[in-house]
Amino acid sequence: MHMTLLEAETLVKRVFEANGVLPATARSVALALVHAEAAGQSGHGLRRVPAYVKQVRTGKVDGQATAVAERTRPGVLAVDAAHGFAYPALDLAVAQLPAMVREQGIAFAAIHRSHHAGVMALTVERFAEQGLVAMMFANAPASMAPWGGKVPLFGTNPIAFATPLEGADPLVIDLALSKVARGKVMEATQKGTDIPDDWAFDVDGNPTTDAVAAMKGTMAPSGGAKGAALALMVEVLAAGLTGAHFSHQASSLFDEKGPPPSLGQAIIAIDPSAAAGAGAARRLADLAHEMARQDGVRLPGRRGRGLRAEAAKHGIKIEDDVMAAIKALG
Amino acid sequence: MHMTLLEAETLVKRVFEANGVLPATARSVALALVHAEAAGQSGHGLRRVPAYVKQVRTGKVDGQATAVAERTRPGVLAVDAAHGFAYPALDLAVAQLPAMVREQGIAFAAIHRSHHAGVMALTVERFAEQGLVAMMFANAPASMAPWGGKVPLFGTNPIAFATPLEGADPLVIDLALSKVARGKVMEATQKGTDIPDDWAFDVDGNPTTDAVAAMKGTMAPSGGAKGAALALMVEVLAAGLTGAHFSHQASSLFDEKGPPPSLGQAIIAIDPSAAAGAGAARRLADLAHEMARQDGVRLPGRRGRGLRAEAAKHGIKIEDDVMAAIKALG
Question: Does the interface predicted TM-score (ipTM) exceed 0.85?
Answer without folding.
Answer: yes
